[in-house]
Amino acid sequence: MSALSALETPFPTVDLDTVERNIAAMQRYCDAHGLALRAHFKAHKLPEIARMQLAAGAVGVCCQKLGEAEVLVGAGVVTDLLIAYPLIGGRKAARLTELATQGAVAVGADSEAVARELSAALAARGATAGFLVDCDTGFGRTGVQAPEDAVRLAALVTELPGLRFRGLMTHPTPPGGAAWLRAARDLLEARGLAVECVSGGGTPGATRAHESGVLTELRVGNYVFGDRRGIAAGHVHLDDCALRVRTTVVSTPTRSRAIVDAGSKTLAGDGAADGNYGLIVEHPDAVIYELSEEHGHIDVSQCNPPPALGEVVTIVPNHACATVNLHDAVALHRGADDVRFARVAARGAVR
Amino acid sequence: MSALSALETPFPTVDLDTVERNIAAMQRYCDAHGLALRAHFKAHKLPEIARMQLAAGAVGVCCQKLGEAEVLVGAGVVTDLLIAYPLIGGRKAARLTELATQGAVAVGADSEAVARELSAALAARGATAGFLVDCDTGFGRTGVQAPEDAVRLAALVTELPGLRFRGLMTHPTPPGGAAWLRAARDLLEARGLAVECVSGGGTPGATRAHESGVLTELRVGNYVFGDRRGIAAGHVHLDDCALRVRTTVVSTPTRSRAIVDAGSKTLAGDGAADGNYGLIVEHPDAVIYELSEEHGHIDVSQCNPPPALGEVVTIVPNHACATVNLHDAVALHRGADDVRFARVAARGAVR
Questions:
Q1: Looking at beta carbons, which residues of chain A come within 8 Å of B88?
Q2: For A194-232, how does the pLDDT look when each residue is reduced to its tens digit (9 = 90+)?
Q3: pTM (predicted TM-score)
Q4: ipTM of the complex
Q5: CA pair distance A278, A271, nearest whole angstrom
Q6: What is the SS3 assignment for B94?
């Protein structure tokens, strides 16, 4: 019995050889096109993998919440952190300031109120943080709504102590997004405001980022693991899926149904267009058609033979980022016998 | 500023006065109808609340995984634990045996293989666990498929050392389930096998459990918190929703859209038929129409006035059990100023 097969189930495993290959491939793409790669920490929340990404050439790390940045700084990763999220409230401003005294940090935000509050907190301690104007280039989430709004906010930021305007960010980069960003950049430069960075994001479509002609940086995270959604979208191969969940068939009540000990508290409830909650590697014709909290409900009618009671099977989840977030630890491995555990440091309510 | 309003966001809060009221109401229902109440731990994963349920009259606690039972025993709750889940594999059998040496424990399962494996492990250490035959009375998850199958498994269990046949369990109890269970019970009694317990489960429909005429026990958990699904189903009032998530409006990019710092990693991605991911108490006309991992996307077009940038709002999530599971801690409170933190002990990959 290998160390991997001795793991209790359900348990998430991460193949470090595959992770390294994925990191190298995305870095090669960015290098070939003169794009800076910023590693998105939210995808794995493991400082060890962030260090691998930095060693391979990433310019820095992107965080989606302050708690992630605090975990990274606590783990000694203090170089060029971007918190790509609007930080509001006095306590968050104080926490950002604390981080800014320990290393280079920047924020992305879309409002004057956030800029003024952060500026006041940073300036009071003589600290400085970079500032990227968050632009809504079509996704419809956060972000200023027009290039002129981006210029207005950037001009304010250049006047505020404690903040340094660095450029623009968006997520993802939809088809019309490049024109939006070019217009904003040109307006800014016409005003004499230097745009060091135009940052786009998202693993789907990542390898077309160079076509925009305007992005200087790519924020990506999911690519280190890959997942079933990536396979469905055509940009991930099964062999590149580094994150898998080992699970046991705990019940085979009928010929067509099997139940595994991986439900929505193990795989996350992220669905897919085809109604399948995960790819069972050993039984690719199986369909995980429903998740209870601790049960995966599987249609095995197309499997010959079907999974046996007690069999351990391996699931590639639909959404790797959401899956990792559910677990206290993952099993990092190289091959089947070199296995060790890593705490998913930044998960849970890191406040 | 109250202690509650001083909490960082996003953060889940639990109103203990409301929890007590919910516990008392469900206990009154069970007492009135001669049903034993078994508190389902998966809903809250907080030993403190399990103790409140036991003090109010619950006969024991139900767990959905071994790790939950281990946390309870570690916290000193050792009375009458039921692990309502098929435990397969040598390590799980050993862990169950360890629990059985520390307190009264029972399992629910649906296969001869599980019964034999657990029996061997328990008997080898002179330990005993109760055994409930898990019955599929129409839900289509785990469980034996026919009353005759229940009798066959029960008869085997009575022959196996280390196990003591206690009765039947099902989840939930669909309309045809009562007839199924009565048939199984009658067959068992005709064989001379005593059926101490017929256990049904699920908060939706809980207060109709007595109509079955066959259930002796009700396994319920969600009722301590309530949630937006319960409101939609008509069995929960907003005032009874003890679990809420405090979240901040971090962006108001357009008049019709607001973004809060509670996404699928905070609220869980459990949807609802009306496409709304949660009820915003202060703005009941708002619709959380989409969740990114750290963003809640809100349509505020029907709100007059809309939520303001920086405003802290309170969300009743769709699914309380899934929400608690995402957080390392909750803030237990009575009123707005008596606030303390409790670790969600059994969440994450408790193996």
A1: 248-250, 309-310
A2: 999 999 998 888 889 999 999 999 999 999 999 999 999
A3: 0.96
A4: 0.96
A5: 9
A6: helix
